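job 3f2a | input accepted
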Amino acid sequence: MNIYPIETGNFKLDGGAMFGVVPKVLWQRTNPADSNNLIDMSMRSMLIEDGDRLILIDTGLGNKQSDKFFSYYYLFGDFSLDTSLAKFGFHRDDITDVFLTHLHFDHCGGAIKWNKDRTGYEPAFKNAKFWSNKNHWQWAVEPNPREKASFFKENIHPMEASGQLNFVELPSNDFAKNTKLGFDILFADGHTEKQMIPHIQYKGKTVVYVADLLPTVGHIPLPYVMGYDTRPLLTMNEKEKFLNLAADNNYILFLEHDATNELCTVKHTEKGVRLNETYKFTEIFN
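job 3f2a | predicted structure (286 res):
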């Protein structure tokens, strides 16, 4: 097995929204804001090469939305999904599976593209299976008013219409072991219904793609919860349980949205679990 970090692009979001009730004077220590109160964010996917399978976890925004839409999110930098795949010798047509932690637009937008005539939409990965779960899919196709602005029909319905949509089986508890994807999955409900957090065994370590359970290293303290989360108190409970396990077992946390840090570890302190070290991917996995 090989794992590759895939940078799909950078964007900016409101710092206050990203940290909820936490005052700016505190969160700006780790996530400095610009004059418009915006903080830098990445959309870092993970590519897993495992035998004949090439599994992409999350896809970034894609490029099919309007100029007006993209003007809200201040895209910057030179990263793209295609150039990042090419860096490691791959093409999007090589992808066999696209695993979507959840269906918010910054995680799944790149899964669907305009068709050739720009009259409709089609899968951006023509040879891949798309993976979600039934509970989250239903949550996305019939969105609640709070999340409606994050679930776009054009990102979601074409997956089902293509015949490429598959569902991960939900476990009896919150953790699925030995799934069809070849990795374990933690299911978390605080950010959105049944967000999926992959746990991959790689080179003797547990690598966890933390998605929106832990957007950046600045979100490690328990009260630092996004304003976007539908159930913030539940997020705090889920995060506390997960971070204690991460500290106990020295998990390597793969950060999707941290524009500066690709990986981190955490440790127990008198104030609770806190950041231990940050790493570039190649510093741990050569």
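job 3f2a | The longest helix spans residues 232-249.
job 3f2a | closed
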